[in-house]
UniProtKB/TrEMBL annotation:
Belongs to the bacterial solute-binding protein 1 family. It is found in: Cell envelope. Its main location: other. This is Extracellular solute-binding protein. Residues 25-57 are annotated as: Disordered. Residues 1-24 form the signal peptide. Keywords: Signal, Transport. InterPro entries: Bact_solute-bd_prot1, SBP. It comes from the Bacteria.
Length: 456
């Protein structure tokens, strides 16, 4: 059954430093290096300078925004300092943790009840068994005005049984990045990228024949989550359904699911042959280097890195940004909706004040500038940085498409599906098993996971 509960110039300098740094510093939550670094170590916590408070004891909050520490510091430190000046009765400590480190330790942290007061949480883990009952309904604690700026379809997607548990800040759907110069070399119109699966195959064939460049780049490396999410995009585009229904049952054990995997295997003949060795960051580098013509399975988080390589105005660069080509079901798109959640009841009121501040238009703008997030507030849309046409593609990806969330929204152990399914998808991409076998093995894996958690 469905689970019930399951602040600007200084920032530009910081952003510039971040964008020109090493590859890990240019990646965002959706990136594999940022999402799954080799080490899971936790950096030291930082307590920012206190502002003299009025009489009375301060409410102490901890906040965690997992990811690359350079970006976290660039965003959170000045924002939290300003918040404490405006709220002298609250003291905020920033915790630093890689995505990989947080993923590995959060079950233990929640079990011990020592989770941060404010966490940047995943939409896929709203019913996670370790966090269940500890991620609080958030509308009780935040200023309702911040919800008015968020598209309603986004808010609806983030709810469980009509209850909102986190404020989505990063909203992203998959898009297609491509090299306009390689399209021109292949005799293709760089201003008319493929819009459907059929057009994508035809363009890939022409690029291969005319240029010798590998047409397609896919993130096929297992263990990084991006492989599964890329495959899920194709399945969703064929079925028009999430991979699991509200009862955690497979929806792709049918002809539509098979059509999706067969198409993906057809596309593999035009993909870089080392696809199973590449995460998103690796594929992105291939595109920057001109070794591939099209990159699939990436989103807004890539923008700062591409701007560092091609210039701020991508509209006038060799890099194109387009909607992901659609499949038989039409305009369906995989999406991720991550944002701020309250995870300690005793400090919920103060946490709500902090999240309200973090979600103010000016602060959201800072966050999206550093992390490559999609602008959605009227304030952001007035800023020169977001006046480029390519941003309309990202808005289309979450507004003009029906959004299908990551696997596990209603499941107590969402990470289990990534662990079990990615090796199967990788075997298929390598040609070790065919599409039918991949579906059979995936269904068995899902059934086993459900059985372990008492889901019949």
């Amino acid at each position: 059954m469905k689970k019930m509960l399951c602040l600007f110039l200084s920032f530009l300098m910081l952003l510039s430093l971040t964008a020109c740094g090493d590859s890990a510093a240019t990646q965002a939550p959706g990136d594999d290096t940022d999402a799954k670094p080799a080490d899971g170590s936790s950096a030291a916590e930082t307590v920012l300078p206190e502002e003299a408070s009025s009489t009375g004891e301060k409410t102490k909050l901890t906040i965690l925004r997992p990811g690359d520490e350079k970006k976290v510091r660039a965003f959170l430190e000045p924002v939290v300092e300003e918040f404490m000046k405006e709220n002298p009765d609250i003291e905020v400590t920033i915790q630093y943790e890689s995505w990989g480190g947080w993923i590995s330790k959060y079950p233990t942290v929640f079990q011990a009840g020592t989770q941060p007061d404010v966490i940047f949480w995943w939409d896929k883990a709203l019913c996670d068994m370790y966090a269940q009952g500890k991620i609080l309904p958030i509308e009780d604690y935040i200023d309702p005005a911040i919800l008015e700026e968020i598209p309603q379809n986004i808010l609806d997607t983030c709810k469980i049984d009509g209850t909102l548990y986190h404020i989505p800040v990063d909203m992203y759907g998959f898009v297609m990045y491509y090299r306009k110069d390689i399209f021109e070399q292949a005799g293709l119109d760089p201003d008319a990228p493929p819009k459907t699966w059929e057009e994508l195959l035809a363009a890939a064939k022409q690029i291969k024949e005319k240029t010798g460049v590998n047409p397609i780049g896919l993130p096929g490396k297992a263990g990084l989550e991006s492989c599964h999410e890329m495959v899920a995009e194709f399945i969703t585009q064929a079925t028009g359904e999430p991979l699991l229904d509200e009862n955690n049952r497979v929806t792709f054990d049918n002809e539509k699911g098979l059509e999706a995997l067969n198409y993906l295997n057809d596309l593999m003949q035009y993909a870089d042959p080392n696809v199973t060795d590449y995460g998103r960051g690796d594929v992105r580098q291939l595109l920057k280097d001109g070794q591939i013509a099209i990159e699939l399975g990436d989103s807004t988080w890539a923008v700062p890195e591409f701007q560092a390589a091609f210039g701020e105005n991508l509209d006038e660069s060799d890099l194109g940004v387009a909607d992901a080509p659609t499949g038989p079901a039409g305009k369906y798109n995989w999406c991720g909706l991550d944002g701020w959640a309250i995870a300690q009841e005793d400090t919920a009121e103060a946490a709500g004040r902090l999240i309200t501040y973090l979600c103010s238009p000016e602060v959201s703008y800072q966050h999206h500038s550093i992390y490559g997030g999609m602008p959605y507030t009227s304030y952001e849309l007035e800023q020169p940085a977001f006046h480029y046409d390519f941003w309309n593609v990202f808005k289309s990806a979450v507004s003009d498409f029906t959004l299908i969330q990551r696997i596990g929204k209603y499941h107590p152990a969402p990470s289990a599906f990534y662990t079990e399914l990615e090796p199967i998808w990788q075997e298929m991409l390598m040609g070790s098993i065919d599409s039918e076998t991949a579906i059979e093995e995936a269904v068995t894996a899902v059934d086993d996971i459900n059985s372990r958690y008492g889901i019949q």
